[in-house]
Each structure stands twice: as structure tokens, then as C-alpha cells.
Amino acid sequence: MRSMLKLFYINRSIAIIFINNFWNILKGPVSIYILLRTLTPEQQGLWYTFISLSALTVFAEMGFTNIITRFVSHEFAHLKFDNNVIIGEDKYLIRIISLIRYAIKFYFFVIPLAVIILIIIGFYFFKTISSDIFIAWVLYSISSGINLFVSLLQSIYQGLNKVYEIQHNIFLGSIFTTLLTWFLLCIKLNIWALVISNYVGLIFTLILLIIKSPKFWHQIYVTSIEHNISWFKEIVSLQLKYAISWISGYLVFQLYIPLTYKYCGAVIAGKLGITLTIVRIIISMSNAWISSEIPKLNILVSQKKYIELKQNFNKAEVNGFLFYIISGLIFVFMVYFMKLYNFYFDRFVGLDIIILMLSYELCSLKISFMANYLRSFKKEPYYILSFFNGVMISFIIMISLLKSNLIILFILINFLNWLVILPWALKIFYSFEEDIK
Fold first, then answer.
1. What is the mean pLDDT of each run of 10 residues along the chain (437 residues)?
2. 20 to 30 Å CA-CA from 115: which of 8, 50, 185, 297?
3. Residues 365 and 321 sit within 8 Å (Cβ to Cβ)
4. Cβ–Cβ < 8 Å for 151, 103
5. Terminal CA-to-CA distance of the chain, rounded, Å?
6. What are phi and psi of 87, to 5 degrees?
7. How far are the Cα atoms of 67, 98, 139 from residue 390, in angstroms, in the given order?
8. Is 81 helix (H, G, I), strand (E, B) or coil?
9. From the centroid of its chain, how far is CA 48?
10. How far, in Å, CA of 171 to CA of 21, rounded?
């Protein structure tokens, strides 16, 4: 077992991410089965539309949680943990505490903005359904705002090379929230199950985070800083580029479901929602190697250890691709046998669309790995490419869904990704590497 773990470059952090995602795989079929048994096709479409629309918080958050993880890691490169508090030279200690306080204050502005954005968008989508659905959406929007704050605290702590601890918290929180959601669905609460479980799960996750590191958070609160550092100037230029990438990412990854719901109906939106959920679990697990390495990559850049940096990146990328290909093939065969035995196959999109999805997501996975590597240098060279991709994907979605043609949608996205976006991304990546040398 140790030899296998070493061969596939699996450390403790990767293992917990894998366990977390393996739980997602286990809960996925059960969740889908319970959704199929307790929700009508129209309610299923509404369920996945709620989840997709909540990702609109990106328009307020603008990739800040990712930025803060990288900045915290760069500052922590000169410090260390001792008895659950940060120790080191005062100049570095003051910088990291000042950075964390700036991030928390910034979110007091971000969270209300995010909630307002969600409520306005939800009014457009749900105003004609019923007042109960819109009230549920308002409450769900508020919980999404709270989720932003919890995610910020997790990102801060993860930036201190605490990937294992944060992923462990996410794992426990996911188990608790999922079990509660299943129970609420079984007692026929329908869409309210999503709203209630979200609130209770967030409170549970926040408590776990505070219990795990009370001394650290107390240190952040009580440490006296005579001269505040102006992080705004250092972060804002990078965040503007991140904002373009993150908003474009929403258009690429989250726009399918709401627009399918709007133009093709709740039934087709539900089919697409379930299928995309499984594909994105595969993507998430494939990203486990690079996700677990992000704080370490940031620290290596700060320490200028570029050879070790590239070695770690290459190992993570190879293992991520191998896992994606194997998992994608398993998913295709699984759906094939569901069709063969007529087991809820009509709740998924067709095999041809699934293969097209897996094809373009393979391209996206490669770009994701390269983007994470470049962001370790506190750079965002893909923001123009991301903007172009987001605009083109939006255009393709609109013209395809207006004709209710999913197969054309994913064929066009494949052409865009493989013939334009990936070659462009590779050119940027290798140009950046040449500049480093």
C-alpha cells in the first residue's frame, strides 16, 4: 500500500481530498436516487437551478478566496506554526495578520452585495412560479452569502499549508449536511430541504473550524498592529484579473443549467444537472493532486525553489490526467448499462452528450492545472483568454438552447476548446516559463 501511495504521489492532503471526493461519489448515487424518488421532474429542475444560480456569488466575490490563499501562503513562507499559533520575525508576523484582517473586513462589503445580486437574479427566474419558491430562494441566497464568509475563513487557514485540516472539516460538514438533506427530502420538504440543510451545515462547519484552531483565530483578533499595511494596492490589480477569470468561469461551468431551465424546461435541466454533477465530481477528484499542492507551490515560489516547484507540478498533472481518463471510462460504461437495463436512464442526457462533455472537460482540466501553476507566482495571465472563452461559451449556449439542441451545444464547445482555447493557453504557459528561466 505504501508503495502504491508513493507511486501515485499520494500524501495525507491528497488522501483526504480523495476521501472527500470518494464520499461525493458514494453520496452521489444515493442523492440522485432520493431526488428521483421524492421530487417530480419539474422539482428536480428547480433543485439544480437553485444550486447553479447560487454560484452567481462569483460576481461579488471575484475569486478573492483563491487570491487570499495564495497571498497567505506567500507570507507564511517565512513563518511557522507552534502550538497552534504563528511564530516568526515580527515583520512577517505583522504582515500576515494584517492581510487576514484586511480579507475579513473586505467580506463585510462582499457578502451583502452577493446576497442582493442573488435575490435580483432569482426574481427574474422565479417570479412567475410562486411566492413560496421565491421566499425559499431569498433565504437560500442569504445562506449563500454566509457560505462566502465560511469559505473565506477556510481559505485563510488552508493558505497556512493546512490543506488536510480544511479538507477534513469539509468532509465532516458534507456528511452532516448530506444526511440532513436526505432526511428532509424523505419527509417531503422538497426544495426547502436544500435551504434548511444549507443553514445547518454552514453552522456545523464553522463550529468545526473554530474548534480546530481557536488559538490561531484568537491571535488574529488580539495581536496589536501599530501600522496597517495597505493590501488594497497590492491585491486590487490581481483581483481585477481574477474577477474576469472567475466570472468567465461561471459562464463556462454554471450557465448551462439556468438557461436550459429557462429555454428547454425543468425536465431537460434536471437531466443535464444530474449528468454534470457526476462529471464535475470526476473533475474535482482529478484536481485533487494540484489542489492539495497549492499552498506548497505558493511557498516554493516565495522561497524561489523553482526546480522543486516544477517537479511537484509535473507529478500532480500526470496523476490527475490518469485518474480522469479511467474515471471517465467507468462513467460511460455505467450509463451504458443503465440504458441496457432501463434503470433510470431517462433521467440522464444521452451517451453521445456525456462523451462530448468528458472530451471538453479533459481540455479544461489541462488548462486548470496550468492556471494553478501560474497563479502560484501571484499572476493571472489567463484572464483575457478566460474572458474570450466566457463570451464565446455564452454565445454558443444561447444559440444552441434557443433551438433546444444539446448535442450541437457540446459539439461547438469541443471545437472551441480544442482548436482555440487549449492552443492559446499552452502558448501563454510556455511563454511564462521562458520568462522565469
1. 54 71 74 82 80 73 76 84 84 87 87 87 78 87 90 88 84 91 90 91 91 87 78 74 69 70 76 82 82 79 83 87 91 84 72 90 91 84 85 82 77 92 93 72
2. 185
3. yes
4. no
5. 38
6. -130, 160
7. 20, 34, 29
8. strand
9. 16
10. 9
